[in-house]
Prior knowledge:
The complex is a heterodimer. By secondary structure, chain A is an alpha/beta fold. Chain A has 6 helices and 15 strands. Chain B has helices at 10-15, 32-42, 124-136, 144-152, 169-172, 199-207, 217-233, 244-248, 256-263, 269-272, 320-339, 349-353, 360-368; strands at 25-28, 44-51, 54-59, 85-92, 98-100, 117-123, 153-158, 183-188, 191-196, 212-214, 280-286, 292-299. Mean pLDDT of chain B is 86; it is low at 1-18. One iron/sulfur cluster binds next to helix 12 of chain B.
Amino acid sequence: MTYPVSLRHEKNAYQYNKARLVRITPQTPDTNLYTFEYVDPGIQKQFTFTPGQFILLSIFGYGEAPFGICSSPNKTDSFDLCIRSVGKLTNVLQNLNPDSVVGFRGPFGHGWPMDEVKGKNIVIIGGGIGLVPLRPAILDVIENRDNYGKLQIMYGARCPEELLFKDELYLWGNRRDIEYVATVDRDDEHCWAGNIGVVTVLFDRINISPKDTYALVCGPPIMYKFVLRELEKIGLPDDRVFLSLERRMKCGVGHCSHCLVGSKFVCQDGPVFSYAEVKAQRGAV
Amino acid sequence: MGLLPEKVLNEWVIIMAPRSTTSPLILKKGDITPFIKKLTHILTVYGPVAKKTQFVFDEISEGSQLRLDYDTTILPPKKYFIPPQEEMVRFSLSPQLNITSPLEESEEATLWNGKRFVIVGIHSCDLAAIKFHDKILTQVYPDPYRTHRRERGIIIGLNCLTPCEESFCKSTMTLSSTEGADLMLTELHDSYYVDVLTETGQLVIDYTKSLFSSASKEQSKSVEQLLTSREDTFPDLIPEFEKLPERLQVGYEGEMWARLGNRCFGCGACTLVCPTCFCFDVKDRVELDLNQGSRVRNWDSCQLVDFALVAGGHNFRPTIPSRVRFRIYHKFWIEPEQIQVIGCVGCGRCTRTCPADIDMIELLTDIQEGGT
Ligand SMILES: Cc1cc2nc3c(=O)[nH]c(=O)nc-3n(C[C@H](O)[C@H](O)[C@H](O)COP(=O)(O)OP(=O)(O)OC[C@H]3O[C@@H](n4cnc5c(N)ncnc54)[C@H](O)[C@@H]3O)c2cc1C
Ligand code: SF4
Ligand code: SF4
Ligand code: FES
């Protein structure tokens, strides 16, 4: 039959690779860090991704869902996901025993513009679980510190218990080559000596120069509105501000239409978009 | 909003391909029954059949069931390429995770090994919708499940000679679409005039050769006349249809969405019967032994409330007006942006199905008139 060859299945995007759960490291009461390793060592060896890309995790019988990859892109023996338990799949996941086998498709999508930001200053702004897809970018900057300019990190969580990667935050705070500030919305237990308030209060604590600077932002939908306004005030142009969007996803490869934002698929054209691209789409933020 | 492609709809021009590659043939109406009989020996045959007062595409075992005089069907033939429910993988959970895909079948489908099927009598609007899916579902990755079925389907198209109610295919420029069909039929008195459009079509003809005769010059001329006379008999109900994307650049915040939204029940029927809609949902099904199951995808609808709901309860389109608007923008603005083709072929099924009497022609005319 005269069908274009590209339509045949050598690019079958619905093929699953099996991976073994290596360990679960608790982060907060409802969020864990999960370390996985592909069952086939050849696949594990070939596994590469760009910070900001996501992967689709399947627990057969319970479903499939997208998660940002959370480990360093330079780590090759395994990879991490940091997942909040919110529903069917994620609740089963937290009760899996090490050595359980799950399925993965991907990585998919476009991540942070790591090539474009080489040699430039980077401001990272994360809200809540939004820090997860930013972590590989932070780790890459730390591991290849000479490749990048200044690194500033702003992180906000609802309360001190909800802060992720607490040991790392401590290290980031103590490094001279990173400017790290954090805030919590509220501190009912009075155990937090730092800033109180939503992420935008941090703009008073940190001096961002718009020159040669890129902002990488990820957080809940409500956060974008306020953060983008602050970045505009500072004078960061829209094409140097990048956001990771979250939408419902059923396929990850541009078929099911669940993730459409304007005419863009979050799963393929994103999840990371420049603010300039986002502005061109209706109903994006 | 993003930039509009320079020329929307240029694809349809390609879809209106030349009518015949080899010399046209004649199949007598009385020979339809032996023709279908012969096809059923090697292929699964689908076609329009009567169901109460309406028509549906269904499997056919006898030529007499085939109703080539149908006006339209409840569901379009897309169900043969994207079934309402389709198994994506089968899995067994113990002793170890084992995943198998229905696509792994290695044997190539030929005309002879029973793995192909034929759909007889697809009208031009539905042909255009099939081509539309060929394009929209291969933007980044090909949809392997649809491709698998598409490669196995043989299509015998049928030219429409009288407009059906609620349709506006002249405006959508899909009235004369033939591309995608392997054979194209035109009713001519007591016969069907047959254009052979592809090699596969020729294979079907070779297999049933004795039933066909060559068309005469006069017959060709009559068909030519019949087809061009449609320019007069089919009304252009939505003039300047191709300008819709441009017109939608404004009006996103308009009041018409609230007005429509107040009438719409959000039932999703309009999207299920639409030949160009293709959204799906995915669910895992586990068998009673809890050890085996399958992942299935089901037709979904952007009109249903949880379509754009994400973790944490945030819904990007929480209201009916926002979902009605999304459906219209998806077809008339997003898809043209993505593949330069408007996602509506003018079949009128959505109007016929809607329990709230929402009329696509009225709705689009409103937009054309700058309705807000
Ligand atoms: C690109 C991307 C990256 C993500 N990265 C992370 C991450 O790193 N860590 C993390 O914890 N979460 C992440 N998420 C969210 C994660 O996908 C959802 O939490 C997950 O789908 C919930 O699945 P569930 O079966 O446990 O919940 P369900 O039982 O399915 O539902 C619980 C809630 O989640 C909503 N929901 C269902 N399916 C989806 C879906 N596919 N996407 C979003 N919401 C859904 C439901 O509407 C409901 O409100 C990401 C989402 C996207 C799109
Ligand atoms: S939107 Fe309505 S008229 Fe257009 S193709 Fe779909 S069902 Fe047919
Ligand atoms: S069929 Fe009619 S009532 Fe139902 S969702 Fe579509 S427009 Fe609304
Ligand atoms: S997740 Fe299916 S189209 Fe993006």
